[in-house]
Design brief:
The protein is built from two helices and 20 strands. It is an alpha/beta fold. A hairpin with a 4-residue loop joins strand 19 and strand 20. The N and C termini lie far apart (about 40 Å). About 35% of the residues are buried. The model has no long low-confidence stretch (mean pLDDT about 95).
């Protein structure tokens, strides 16, 4: 669902996909190959929200801000399920973990990884390539080349997802029985532990 608000109409590039159960409101600009999942709310009612190319905002995320503030989620920023971005700017190719909260005027550096359920306080500045965890969130180490390569591969799956959704997602009636020879999806991406064989 895409809504005009006070004369502001969202701009969504045709290559991007906004799920019908998401809500995009007002002064929002969504670039190329972005994915907005069901239940996500991107509210550009009080300020501008820009999603640069290749950003994904997954299921049940909220992106909003205080009045008069504007924010940017830079190219390939990856916002995990249930996260809240409130008036914060996200750097290029960063990862925001599931159910984390990033508060007003915080700055997440390029290629940083914020762990699941972290709480990043208002006005916090996270340097680029930082691994951030906890409540309140702290930088615990630098992101390695291997870790950022793993993150980037995962984001590429989300950058392909808009095309897949445009081509194959449709509303249907459910099957009543499991078909014989039902397929399962291929394993195309592994967890961090599976990838590196130890806790990073």
């Amino acid at each position: 669902m895409v809504y005009e608000f006070q004369g502001f109409i969202p701009v969504v590039h045709e290559s991007s996909f906004v799920h019908p159960l998401a809500a995009v409101t007002g002064n929002v600009i969504i670039g190329k190959n972005c994915y907005i999942g069901p239940g996500a709310a991107i509210r550009g009612d009080w300020g501008q929200i820009i999603l640069e190319d290749g950003v994904n905002v997954q299921e049940n995320c909220t992106v909003h801000m205080f009045p008069g503030k504007s924010i940017i989620l830079k190219e390939s920023a990856h916002v995990g399920h249930g996260a809240i971005i409130h008036g914060a700017n996200l750097g290029r190719n960063c990862l925001i973990g599931m159910n984390s909260v990033i508060m007003d005027d915080a700055e997440i550096g390029d290629e940083s990884i914020v762990g699941a359920m972290a709480f990043v306080k208002a006005e916090t500045v996270i340097p680029k390539r930082s691994l951030v965890v906890g409540n309140p969130a702290k930088v615990v180490k630098q992101v390695s080349d291997e870790m950022i390569a793993w993150k980037t591969k995962g984001t590429k799956l989300y950058q392909q997802l808009p095309t897949d959704c445009h081509e194959t997602l449709r509303e249907v009636e459910p099957l009543r029985e499991v078909p014989e020879n039902m397929k399962i999806q291929d394993s195309v991406y592994k967890t961090l532990r599976e990838t590196f064989g130890k806790k990073r």
